[in-house]
Amino acid sequence: MFDNLSEKLQGxxxxxRGKELTQDNxxxxxxxxxxxLLEADVNLRVVKSFISSIKDKAExxxxxxxxxPSEQLVKIVHDELVEILGKENxxxxxxxxxxxxxxxxxxxxxxxxxxxxxxxxxxKEGKNPLLVACDVYRPAAISQLKTLGSQIGVxxxxxxxxxxxxNIVQQSLNYSKEKGYNVLIIDTAGRLQxxxxxxxxxxxxxxxxxxxxxxxxxxSMTGQEAVNVAENFDAQLNLxxxxxxxxxxxxxxxxxxxxxxxxxxxxKLTGTGEKLNALEDFYPExxxxxxxxxxxxxxxxxxxxxxxxxxEALEFQKKMKKAEFTFDDFLKLQKQMKAFGSMGNILxxxxxLNIKKDDRDMISHEGEKQMKRIEVFISSMTPxxxxxPALLNSSRKKRIAQGxxxxxxxxxIFVKQFEQMRQxxxxxxxxxGMMGKxxxxxxxxxxxxxKRFM
Length: 454
Hints:
The chain has helices spanning 3-14, 23-39, 44-60, 69-84, 111-124, 141-152, 165-179, 196-209, 224-237, 254-263, 284-291, 297-307, 310-321, 327-340, 343-349, 357-379, 383-387, 394-404, 408-427, 431-441, 443-453, and strands spanning 99-104, 129-134, 156-157, 183-188, 213-219, 241-245, 267-271, 279-281. By secondary structure, it is α/β, with parallel strands linked by helices.
C-alpha cells in the first residue's frame, strides 16, 4: 500500500536531516515531492494544491528551538496528507430502521465482493445485515452474491426472473422488517461505462427509498480514472462516500490521494485483501503516518484485539512461562497470525522499523512460504507428538520426513529452532519482557533472527 510513494517521500525527508532548511533546499525538496506525487499518479489539481499548501506552511513556520528542521518538514507533510485524505474518519450512517446502504460502481470494480465484505464487517459489529441482489443484468451476479452469502452466513434476498429493481428493493425492505434485519446492503448493477439507463435506475432507487448511504465502489488500481468515475457518479447521485478496493495492491496511491480532494466525498471503507474479512474503516491520520514510515500502532492493536482470543492468549502465556508450548499451540498461533494479514502488512504498521519494500516483501514471501511448510510438517505428526515435542527422536523424525516430503535435514532444523523459540518465549513471556528483549537485541539483530528462522 503506497509503497513507491512512501519510499520516495521518506527518502526526500531523510535528505534534509541534519540540515537547516533554507529557501534553496526547501525548493529542491518541494520539486522532489511534486515529482513523487506525479509518479504516484496523483491528480494534477491535487499535486498543485498539496505543494502550494506545504510551501505556505513551511515558509510561515518558525523554527522551534530544539526541533530538527527536517522533523518540522515531516509534520507539515503529514498534516497536509491528512488534510488531502479527508481529515478524519467518517463512519457509516446506520441510524435507520433498517439502514439502507446502496453500493454503486462500474463492472469489475469489486462491488459484489465488497457487499459481502461489508456484511462480514457489520456482523462483527453486532448488526444483522441482509444482502439484496439488484444486479438483474449480469447473468452470474446473483449467483455470485448467493455463493458469497452462503460462505459468510448472511441471507441474500432475490426474486427469480424479476427485472424491476424498484420492486426488488421494496420487497426486500418489507422482508427485512418482517425478519428483523437492521441493515440492507443493496448490490446494484454495474456497467462497463456510465450510461443513461444505468443512472436512471439508480436515480429511481435513490428518489423512492432515500438510502442512508450511497457508496461508490472504486478500483484504486485505476488511478486517475477513478477520479473521473467518482465525479460523474457524484454529479448525478450526490454520493455519501467512497469504498476503495484493492488498496493493498496499489503501490502508487494516486486514487486515494486524489479522490477525496476532487470530489469532496470521504473514503469510508477500504478493501485491503482478497479475504472476505479484508474491509476496513478509513482513517486519514493512520494512512498518513504509514506513508511517512511512522507505522500505525493503533490499527495494529485493533487488529490484534479482533484476531487474538483473550482466553487463549492467557493460556499461551502460561505455557510460555513453563516452556510447555506445543506444536498444536504453534498451529493455533499460526492460524491466528494468518487472520492478522500478510507479514508485509504487519511490518508496515510497526513504528520505527524502516524496512525497505524489497526486504519487507522478501520477509513476507519467505515467511509465509515457510509457515506453509511447517504446517505440512506438523500435520505429519501423530497427536501425541504434536502435544509433546520431547517425543521426537531420530526414528520419528525420519517417519515424519517421509510422510511430509520434507528433507530430514530441514526437519532437524525445524525442531531445533522450535525448541530455541520455546526457550526464548520462556524468557520473555510478557509484553514488557518482549520489548526489553527486542530493545537489547537491536533492530539489526532482530531482523537477522527473523531471516534465519525463515
